[in-house]
Amino acid sequence: MKIGNIDLGTCPVMLAPMEDVTDRSFRLICKEQGASMVYTEFVSADALIRDIPATTRKLAIDPEERPTAIQIYGREVEPMVEAAKIVEAAKPDIIDINFGCPVKKVAGKGAGAGMLRNIPKMLEITRAVVEAVNIPVTVKTRLGWDHESKIIVTLAEQLQDCGIKALTVHGRTRSQMYTGTADWEMIARVKENPRLTIPLIGNGDITSPQLAKEAFDRYGVDGVMIGRAAIGAPWIFNDVRRFIDGIHGHEMPIEDKFALIRRQIKESVDRIDEYRGILHIRRHLAASPLFKGISHFRETRIAMLRAATLDELYAVLDRVESIVKENQSTDIDYENN
After folding, report:
1. Which own/partner contact pairs does 100-105 have at CB distance under 8 Å and 24+ positions apart?
2. What is the pLDDT of residues 3-17, one digit of tens each?
3. 101 belongs to the catalytic site
4. Where are the beta strands (DSSP E) in the chain?
5. Distance CA 63, CA 186 (A)
6. Could you say which architecture CATH assigns to the domain 2-244?
7. Rounded CA separation 276/255 (Å)
8. Is the pLDDT of residue 228 over 50?
9. Catalytic residue among 11, 30, 101, 162
10. Which burial class, exposed, middle or buried, applies to 30 when counting CB atoms under 10 A from its CB (0-12, 13-18, 19+)?
11. What's residue 292's pLDDT?
12. Burial of 174 by CB count in 10 Å (0-12 exposed, 13-18 middle, 19+ buried)?
């Protein structure tokens, strides 16, 4: 699969853009684990133009994480064009436009998935951004605003006509937010449209290697994007890549998974500071499948999420790792419990 002149290989698996999750450290780890391409946290066009430091810091890319897409969002043409030019100067491989974020503070103001209620403006923004930069532009969006307006088949064609080089479709409507199940049959309908010639990337509920392979084999997408399932489990890209390539067995050892979690914690602290770095990483710890299925874990989990220093947090992780290793001889499946 190619996006412009960027060759992502066969059956590429990408890290989805996620606010407060896909920082540079996490992207690099996911890349090392087999992600074909990674996306930054989404960047507000308005904040970027105002040169807000917390926003401009999101543009920093490590050479080792490439190919990398920087994702922008906004609701007006001129700010989006200006932001796209600023982003291009940061030299990402791709600029991605977010027309899919469902949260109220974004969609409620007409940006992100809010654009699904104003298709003419969505197309105007897309066309203007494509014309303003010299690197590939892609779009990420949803099936439609709600169940009564699943317009993605027609919309995909319209976006293609604006000049985008690939399209990612999350298989939910904006109204669904992240509830229910992703509609991959609808994503398949987009792919089946003979007039769609750009690569189609499917997104939504890819939580295992088997589901990733099914997305390619059954629904025919050109690429797969993994989001929430990677939080606290960056090795999912290694698992998916090996499964798709027919390499079975030899699961990553537990100690290596814990080593990755410790690395995330340390790099988060080094990037910010001890207090805020630990706060930032708690979302990954709370979501990690490493801690699922452990009996009587509540008190330990509370201690882990309340730890305020590296020493405290590492001490809790050491205890948890010992528990997991002790239980490896049982039939508990920590990945799927």
Report:
1. 100/140, 100/141, 100/142, 100/168, 100/170, 101/42, 101/73, 102/142, 102/172, 102/174, 102/176, 102/177, 102/178, 103/177
2. 999 999 999 999 999
3. yes
4. 2-3, 6-7, 13-15, 37-39, 43-44, 68-73, 94-99, 137-142, 166-170, 200-203, 223-226
5. 36
6. Alpha-Beta Barrel (3.20)
7. 26
8. yes
9. 101
10. buried
11. 78
12. buried
Q: For residue 336, what pLDDT is reported?
A: 42
Contacts of 223 (CB under 8 A, 6+ apart): 1, 8, 11, 12, 13, 14, 36, 166, 168, 199, 200, 201, 202
User: What does the DSSP assignment read for 82-97?
Assistant: HHHHHHHHT--SEEEE
207-224 tens-digit pLDDT:
999 999 999 999 999 999
Identify the H or E element spanning 260: helix 254-271
Cβ atoms of 293 and 332 within 8 Å: the answer is yes
pLDDT of 329 over the 90 cut: no
Q: What percent of the chain has pLDDT over 90?
A: 78
Cα–Cα distance for residue pair 132/72, rounded to 1 Å: 14
Burial class (CB in 10 A: 0-12, 13-18, 19+), 89: exposed
- Global confidence as pTM: 0.91
Please state the domain extents for the chain: 2-244, 254-326
